[in-house]
Amino acid sequence: MCVCPGPRRIAIPVRSSRLPLLSDAMPAPAHLFPLIRNCEISRIGSTVCYCHHKHLCCLSSHFAHSHFRYAPQKKFAALYRPKEHFNHFIHTRDYASTPQRFYLTPSQVNSILKANEYSFKVPEFDGKNVSSVLGFDSNQLPANAPIEDRRSAATCLQTRGMLLGVFDGHAGCACAQAVSERLFYYIAVSLLPHETLLEIENAVESGRALLPILQWHKHPNDYFSKEASKLYFNSLRTYWQELIDLNSGETTDVREALINAFKRLDNDISLEAQVGDPNSFLNYLVLRVAFSGATACVAHVDGIDLHIANTGDSRAMLGVQEEDGSWSAVNLSYDHNAQNEREVERVKMEHPKSEEKSLVKQDRLLGLLMPFRAFGDVKFKWSIELQKRVVESGPDQLNDNEYTKFIPPNYFTPPYLTAEPEVIHHKLRPQDKFLVLATDGLWETMHRQDVARIVGEYLTGVHHQQPIAVGGYKVTLGQMHGLLTERRARISSVFEDQNAATHLIRHAVGNNEFGTVDHERLSKMLSLPEELARMYRDDITIIVVQFNSHVIGAYQNEEL
Amino acid sequence: MFLRLLSDIQWRAAHPKWRRMTSSQRSTSTTAEPHPVSLPAQAQVVICGGGIMGTSVAYHLSKMGLKDIVLLEQGRLAAGTTRFCAGIVSTARPMSVELKMAHYSNKLYQQLEQETGVQTGYMKTGSISLAQTQDRLISLKRIASSLNVMGIPCEIISPKEVLQFHPLINVHDLVGAMYVPEDALVSSANVSLALATAASRNGVQIHERTCVSHVTIQKGRVTGVETDRGRIQCEYFVNCAGQWAYELGHSGEEPVHIPLHACEHFYLLTHPLKEPLSSSLPTIVDPDGRIYIRNWQGGILSGGFEKNPKPLFTEGRNQLEIQNLQEDWDHFGPLLGALLRRMPGLEALQIMQLVNCPESFTPDMRCIMGESPTARGYFVLAGMNSAGISYGGGAGKYLAEWIVNGYPSENVWPLDLKRFGALQSSRTFLRHRVMEVMPLMCDLKVPRWDFQTGRQLRTSPLYDRLDAQGARWMEKHGFERVKYFVPPGSDLLDLDHSKTFYKPDWFDIVGSEVKCCKEAVCVIDMSSFTKFEISSTGDQALESLQYLFSNDLDVPVGHVVHTGMLNEKGGYENDCSIARLSKRSFFMISPTDQQVHCWTWLKNRLPDDSNLVMEDVTWKYTALNLIGPRAVDVLSELSYAPMTAEHFPSLFCKEMSVGYANGIRVMSITHTGEPGFVLYIPIEYALHVYNEVMNMGQKYGIRNAGYYALRSLRIEKFFAFWGQDLDAFTTPMECGREFQVKLDKGVEFLGQEALWEQKQNGVYKRFTMFILEDHDTDMDLWPWWGEPIFRNGRYVGKTTSSAYSYTLERHVCLGFVHHFDEKTGEELVVTTDFINQGEYEIDIAGQRFQAKAKLYPFSSLFTQRRRKDEVELSGYQRE
Q1: How much is the average pLDDT of B254-266?
Q2: Which family does it belong to (chain B) (predicted)?
Q3: Which of B296, B329, B341 to mutate to test the interface with A (most CBs of A within 10 A)?
Q4: Over the stretch B214-228, which tens digit does the pLDDT of each residue have?
Q5: CA B730 to CA A331: how far, in whole Å?
């Protein structure tokens, strides 16, 4: 029943800051009451009971996280076994014998799927879009509550190009949130020519209005932290001041700019946490940012130059339409995890041979962390002394937190983790129709080839379904009927969505064994209570960028 | 194609002479080779099209003794739609004339093999129509009732009994079925070839690979046919070109409008089952699943009528022979689903082929036959709506009779080409309409169904005004007419849910409109009626009309005369009202769908005299019917003229002013038997007069009303309407309208002789009114039309129309009573005593209701307002 392969998820307490999304759309939820307290999580799927009094259950703390594995489980769980819950569970036992089948209607499913969808079309001038990007669709579907994924998209205003990124947080959403707010500024600043940097610095110095650097394309649910903006700005300013001082006079290389921006931001996150802030809220915030982590997969599109900077296990994939109209997928990033041999090699190279065995255990860094590169996660970067000092001098909340106090085992030669991205440069061709950036929530459930086909067919509105011809083959009525049903389902699911990312999520969550959306399955998956949702799926965040083949074709001709 | 291969061999074996003629062409494919037999320079009849229709017409014409017949086929015989036909001969048709055609076809095909020696594959398998819903079962029961009285065996069976006839059927979702044991299967191409063989033996010349380019017409008559192999002079031309009939009709200088359009039609062929299906297994029709299934060479053949048909050849594309069109499995998917649901055991059955074959459909689901209104001698038989093989024999017979005798032996008005005009000839209209028609083949046929596509073509100038007041519309001959007005605030069911065989949701709405007609005054827009003006410089108009109409038209100026336009046999070709506007001009009002037929009838019979002018003025006038006792008051207030009976007697016509508008033709008729007037208003005044009438009428309680109210009123008054009750086989004597015939008017008129004879010898059928006695309006099925009438338990005829009478609070059915000899079945004279002395029952979907027969309407319905002078003036009791 549980799709998680083995007991790899671990319970990390995270404060719930907003109402779970699912419950908004569920009119009469027969809520599942989880027994996560003190048993192996992998067993949970089969030991659930139904409860109709959701408001009584929602006190339960939030569990489950994808990237971590936390050893002293029992001790930890004992702390989080509120008595009332247990009583309540007993009280509602009689419901368990008659579990009600509860499905969402198609429109309820749609309202859940579409709650976070966002589309942006690059504006046309004189009826022409001169950008190589037509626009993008993005969406996210939470599994954690609150969701730990973030997404960002912005157009660079002082240089050309567009930035898009997905960020997968772990151990809370603080780091992902901070990276999603700040990273693009660091990248944009890295790309700015010397004169513009000077101009900006002068403007700040003399209190004049700043040149706008980025134009954000945000969904109303994507928020920026107001409280930290001053702090973040100061760090950014320090960065560009250093850039001005460093003035190399050379034109900025995008690859270098991306790498510098990633590293600099991670460095700033680390420094801010070490320095702290007089404001207690901010002080706690910067610590939470530093102690949580986030992966990042960022695309920079400028004309036909596409750069992907990736840190962690989110992925960028290019959708290519072959001459025969079919779709294929080209990877534009490498996952930084245990499945990537080069990455394992790199980690081993950076540490003494004595640690070779303890470095990667159970496919995790130090047996704990799934991604091998990430922002934040100072527990894998700072020395033990530094960690202890910061935690001890930090606010009480930090001290009470079991996780932050916990030092990874076999922790000898930090840092074990880096935020340095791997950058891939790709020259866009007319056959490159779209780019998919997505967190591992998508890639866990779908093969990239299917992603390419589903998005390709969605965007072109054409289903490259060859008309069926029986010809000389032996086909039975039943086989034909099955085939036709499947083809019909594929087409009908396309018409429901106005957003490619939504469409992809629909498939990722609702696909049956035929690769077509099964409403019943979709409905079941979406009506899972937040405590259980994480068992069946991860947060999914997707950005689909659609390219303008005409413009790309014209660029190509120019270059030739 | 194996079907074709099979038939070729048989055809040539059966007819060696034919082989000699054509073997050289067949050996090579399409290269033009010299034709061994040259075309004749002239013939009496040229038939274009060698499918089932063309060969059937040739067969019947030659049987009737015509010798000089040429049949031209652009490709090869039976190579078009006929080749792909599923070959099901089914008599289960809702309409009487279609049922008769199918019945005749079945009998014809049965003996064809014996007659010609050509194997037709005829197999009497029977057919079972399944009902998944109670409504479907009702419609099957209605068909069963009419089949039984025709002497065609037929029974309603339970789902369990279905299993006994066909082992593979899943019956769990069925509520019943209809079994017709005599329905048959044939190889349609072979039937066509057999008919050709017989025709050829009877002297019909058949030429394949001869393409008709156009038909030459001079002075409104067919003179010849131009082909790619030369010209043939002829007297009659028969267009049996199937889906190309429309294009052929438009190929000449003078277009002949044949409104039909092709759609793709799919059926599936499978390999034989492990245990091959018996060839005697009955055909299954599952209309709720939209499919039919027949046994085919040990496997099955299954096709259907999908909800989303694919029209094709809209832009016209003539093809010699239909090459196999692309199979579209995705399109066929839902039908395949229905098939597997009906016969789940077939899952493992292997597919042989999905056949895609274009079928032609017509705007009203009925086939097209008859003579062109614009070209005499130009006949058409096409647009079979996928029932070509069922109708082929009967339709060919009727058309042959039409050519030879001038009229077929049955009333074929529902199929007559002249029910259409140029207005149904738009390709866009046809494309849209056939997309609605094709799914309807399987949809439930409920009373008062209106087509939804191709609407709002002809409208009254008041359309928007009426629509804003809640009008619900129906369409007749392209014209929008109001059914009833939905009062603000009341909700009717949506289209799909309003389909019922029981009491409809508008019952109370129409009831209140009727009540208003009876007690106050209502306005009905009747602009759709066909209006002609006939005038002459001398007395030609009067003389001609006196000959063409049975009543005496030599009345004082300002009088209105109800009269029949009769044929030689005294039958009604039209039933109309004629007003004498002046000594030399007449204004004629006919039913809406008479526009083409009546025009043609008169045009063909009026003398060719430039001083005699006939004009169609339908479009010039808006007609408002003011019905009710207070119509007098409204009109007199608006015109400052006395409108009482003394000044404006019944059946009178006067031009006067209404409101500010002058020149309004006011007639004291209402088409319902109620007091009131019809105003014929030049269209630019229509809105003004309507507004004035509505404003003035307010204090008299005026309201809008629609045709459903009119219908209820006229039927309770025993008024026959042409097209529903009256047809070319009904004489005034048979429907109690002797008073509209002036046998002694001193002028000879058409049909006079036949009527004399009837007057002396009596009539063989009699129009009778039935009041249902034990019928519960709320609970029981409503009568519609076509219900069998039983007298003392014996079948005597069918109803032609019915309505609920709000005054009698009973259902009223109108219909004809025959007198069949109990032993011989011979038709005997129907006397008043015969009618009056019977105990009657009306069969509604198998359930019989007691009915009281009346030859005259209830006098109580003509209460105090009925004036004695009016009765005397009109000379009859019914208006």
Answers
A1: 93
A2: Belongs to the GcvT family.
A3: B329
A4: 999 999 999 999 999
A5: 83
